[in-house]
């Protein structure tokens, strides 16, 4: 049986590795050239780390994550509001994780420069995926792992009703050896008490940190569009936005902004959508952000995508009929995904209205699968 995976991000690569390890014929098709691009860094909890350890077992490759042992929440004056230990959490640079996952698949299974166009049907059955470069990949099963803006999902289910997350994030990576060295193993967040505004820092190496600013765009914002991002002064506007919103935050925050190259930073417009009625149609199934998108406050998006790959691969091995496997996969994932969507919205509302709900958590206890 040949499985064609559309999308070579973390979800698609994990799916490909699982299937390859269980002797499926696999083709992973990525729109970009297979260099690790896009995104900055993210937290991952035990469930995701367990998947990575399983995928890399006996490979000899060292996983790239760095442990995060404590979470410290401070007010804008730098006073500690709360501090607690974190059990089995790590910070991963997306580029490092993608590079590691690429090594766990034979290069013969990886195809790049393939932007998905449409499915090819024979006798009302999907038999191949066609790409904008004119190439075609035939297969028996097809897995859509092409992200939140999934073309595969759109062709199967039509347009989803995205709900605005009402919160935006500016995300960046900064070289700052002194500060990174002092914050090793720590996740530090500065939170305004009365408005939706926060700033977080997590070291990704001994000299480098990922940082983010979560903010209510009603406080201040800049014009976001493809044309705006290509303008000469866009990154300067981004710098000014951060400096203006964070002007009352402590010296550590100001130092990060001074050292940061805003040409490598970007704004993430958070959004989600309700649980789909199913994750498959005929012989095509969705995983990761193509199947479900939740707001970032649960810190579980990447882990959920990897769990999709683990559970779907298990269902495909347990059931002879793909349709039965797909239904079992949906049944295993739907309740948890629905709960994560709901929890993300609850935490979003708490972030936007902190005075009414007290100090909000930075990251939630991850829901058990």
Automatic annotation (TrEMBL):
Matches recorded under InterPro entries: FAD-bd, FAD-dep_Monooxygenase_BioMet, FAD/NAD-bd_sf
Keyword S-adenosyl-L-methionine among UniProt keywords: no
Source organism, top-level taxon: Bacteria
Keywords on record: Monooxygenase, Oxidoreductase
GO molecular function, a single term: FAD binding
Residue ranges annotated for the FAD-binding domain, each copy included: 2-333
PANTHER family, per the entry: MONOOXYGENASE, PUTATIVE (AFU_ORTHOLOGUE AFUA_6G14510)-RELATED
Protein name: 2-polyprenyl-6-methoxyphenol hydroxylase-like FAD-dependent oxidoreductase
Organism field: Pedobacter cryoconitis
Lineage per the UniProt record: Bacteria, Pseudomonadati, Bacteroidota, Sphingobacteriia, Sphingobacteriales
